[in-house]
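Long-time lurker. I teach an intro course on protein structure, and each term I like to show students one example going from raw sequence to a predicted 3D structure in token notation. This year I'd like something fresh instead of my usual example. Would anyone be willing to generate the tokens for the chain below so I can use it in lecture? Attribution to the forum is fine with me.
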Amino acid sequence: MQQGLLASILLSASLLVGHVSASEVQPNFVHSLLVDQQLNKKVDELHQYLIDGDIITLNFSLNRLSMPQQEAVRFMLVKQIEQQQLILDPKGTIWLREQLAIHPTYTIKQAGNGYVVTKLAFDYSSIASRVLNQMSKDQQVLDFILAAEEHKLVLSEWLVGEPHQVRVRQSIVLAELDSLTPEALNYLVSQITDGSLSVWLPTTEVMVRLAQISQNSDVYKILWKMRTDQYSVAELGRLSNIAPDPFAIQQLMSATNNPSLKQSAFASLAQLHPLPQDVQQFLLAKIDHIQDGGAVAMHLANYGHQSWLESLPITRNKVRKQHVRLALSQR
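-- Reply from a regular --
Happy to contribute to a lecture. Here you go:
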């Protein structure tokens, strides 16, 4: 037996003696195994078997190791797969999935402020589970992009189902929309804009992202008709921050059709200096409105547009006259 392995086995025996449970080891012993040069060389050897697809030799070599060295090596190999983001072939994936059924034996105790926690010393099964979940998500990302690019992905089918699956798929949509070609993006947008509001719509979060990436006014019109939540409010704020960008201004004006957002949208438009011509025309029409006119005039007065209000012809428009005079009298 190699000297390093023999030393670690002897150390194992000395550190295990006197424990209440034979499966409980000391943290410094765990560390000694993880930094052992011979064990790390064994991990590199097994790693090569994994890359080569030689799973039989991998398992044979791994199972020949005594405990707890075998468990430490198994842990380091699985951790190496995660850290290197190793792309596994089907055989390697099956091997990794088999690690979920092999339950770690050794535990350590960690003391905190008034408490003691027992943890697995070599928790390779949790790492394997995490890697497999990421592999599954990576595959779903690829499936999403390919289906969208081939015009085969139907959002109303892809974003429904078991709650956890929907959450994962929605996160993929949010993250990958900006990686699609314009043609694929337009294909997804058309599924929203060509339908009826009485049919299916994605969540507000997805709608906001779709609107941002596509820069499609029809998507925004639908978004503003949906129930207001944190995502639509945040998007209104983002548009306000990039105004007087012409597209942003158009969406702010469109947002005034939403009862929950219109005052914020009016305020954002009133904060523009100078007021663009199209905004002047839009707000003037709103001032003449019986319901909204008073609030619009007040926003304009509050944000420094008193001179513009004073310049408006009011003699032939009683509603405008009332709203403008009230707003100016409050200053």
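Some talking points for your students: The CA atoms of residues 313 and 321 lie 8 Å apart. The first helix runs from residue 3 to 16.
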